[in-house]
Specification:
By secondary structure, the chain is an alpha/beta fold. It has two domains: 11-43 and 283-389, Aspartate Aminotransferase, domain 1 (Alpha-Beta Complex); 59-281, Aspartate Aminotransferase, domain 2 (3-Layer(aba) Sandwich), CATH 3.40.640. It is 43% helix and 15% strand. It has helices spanning 11-16, 43-54, 66-80, 95-106, 121-129, 150-158, 179-191, 219-224, 232-235, 250-258, 261-264, 269-281, 283-307, 335-342, 369-389, and strands at residues 30-31, 89-92, 113-117, 134-138, 140-142, 145-147, 163-167, 195-199, 225-229, 243-247, 312-314, 321-325, 345-346, 348-349, 360-364. The strands form four sheets. The protein has a seven-stranded mixed beta sheet, sandwiched between helices. α4 (95-106) packs parallel to α5 and α13 (283-307) packs parallel to α15. The protein is globular. The N and C termini lie far apart (47 Å).
């Protein structure tokens, strides 16, 4: 591993960045909630941003920036074995904007949207803001691993749903779906002539194997999928506003090119430059990050087993978030509320991900080992008075 000083950060430094994660809660709270890494920025990205600043590249971005398409396609080919047409890569502000456009412009008007749950909270909102009904399809926990309920999805499509939002890799439960699972899903979708809007923002963050893009599976999946991805999760660029919509068939490409310019604006010039730098030159840094995250993943598991044995960790195959079931602890409040008040640790509330999140919370382990260990220790200490007074 290259020395990237992942352990060198302290809370004061993180708060000084003046971003949401470490400034939403009070100074006495450890921020383990929002999906943002604490690590120093990749040197290649810093260089790309500095070059933009030096060149005073603050004007409007080039529409469908060709270099972004080339960089995205090259990354996809090298790391996922997916051949993407660079001309079919389109810059937008963020993944949620891409999902909104996917629902509004690429699905049957008024058709309900299937949403596997627990789900990334804004998915509920973007579906409703598009005037559509959310059809929830709870995941099934099987042998310690969440899987899609294909029968539930089949029923939803049979009753009139027109599309499904696939989060692959899956936030919050950390699944990286395998080829057989995705093919089984595709059979259900194709059977009903449905669409898939695939959020693959966490694609670079799969442990031990390569991400499998849903659209890459077959000609059928390429024909019914709109893929939205970004460099923002893997290289920590959320504030720079640049995601990529990837079309994988001629009809969708024609639909995209028919959209009004106002619908697709929002990517920033500097964000495009940072994303290109990440895809082209950020690979070694990301390898180092993934190695460090693997260590943190194991540390989280061992510390929970040692200090909070009643907590059930769903061991993540991807992402830097972990889904934890605290139900067996019989806490007097939801885990988020309890640990925020008594441990001064901010987790992401389980119920924000849907009713399946009751008794659960999500923790972000993309931080220093010191902060991660301190967080689990604080949570463990908070349980002592809770269990003795219940």
């Amino acid at each position: 591993m290259t020395n990237n000083n992942f352990d060198s950060l302290d809370v004061a430094t993180l708060r000084a960045r003046n971003t949401l994660k470490w400034n939403w809660y009070g100074e006495d709270v450890l921020a383990m909630w929002v999906a943002e890494m604490d690590f120093p920025t990749a040197p290649a990205v810093m260089e790309g941003v500095r070059d933009s600043v030096t060149a005073e590249s603050f004007g409007y971005p080039i529409f469908d920036h060709p270099a972004l398409g080339v960089a995205t396609a090259a990354w996809s080919a090298e790391h996922y074995g997916w051949t993407v047409n660079p001309m079919a890569v389109h810059a937008i502000a963020d993944v949620l904007k891409g999902i909104e456009l996917g629902i509004d412009e690429f699905t049957a008007p008024g058709s309900p949207v299937v949403l596997p749950t627990p789900a990334y909270p804004p998915f509920f909102d973007v579906i409703k803001l598009s005037g559509r009904k959310v059809v929830e399809s709870p995941l099934v926990l099987r042998d310690g691993k969440y899987v899609l309920d294909l029968q539930s999805i089949d029923t939803a499509f049979a009753k009139g749903a027109g599309s499904l939002i696939l989060c692959n890799p899956y936030n919050p439960v950390g699944r990286a779906f395998d080829r057989e699972e995705l093919l089984a899903l595709s059979e259900v979708v194709s059977k009903h002539g449905g669409r898939v809007i695939s959020d693959e923002i966490h694609a670079p963050l799969v442990f031990g194997r390569s991400h499998i893009p849903y659209a890459s599976l077959t000609e059928e999946t390429a024909g019914h999928t709109l893929t939205i991805t970004a460099a923002s999760k893997a290289w920590n660029l959320a504030g720079l506003k640049c995601a990529q919509v990837i079309t994988s068939n001629n009809a969708d490409e024609a639909t995209w090119r028919s959209l009004n310019l106002l619908q697709t604006l929002g990517a920033s010039t500097v964000g495009i430059a940072a994303s290109i730098a990440a895809y082209e030159h950020g690979g070694q840094w990301l390898e180092d990050v993934m190695e460090y995250l693997e260590g943190n993943r194991e540390l989280l598991r061992s510390e929970l087993e040692r200090q909070i044995p009643g907590a059930r960790l769903i061991f993540p195959e991807a992402t830097y978030m972990a889904w934890i079931d605290f139900s067996a602890l019989e806490l007097p409040a939801e885990p988020y509320e309890f640990f925020l008040e008594h441990a001064k640790v901010a987790l992401k509330p389980g119920l924000e991900f849907g009713l399946e999140g009751k008794g659960h919370a999500r923790i972000n382990f993309a931080t220093t080992r010191k902060i991660l260990t301190e967080s689990v220790s604080a949570m463990s200490s908070a349980l002592v008075p809770a269990t003795t007074t219940r």
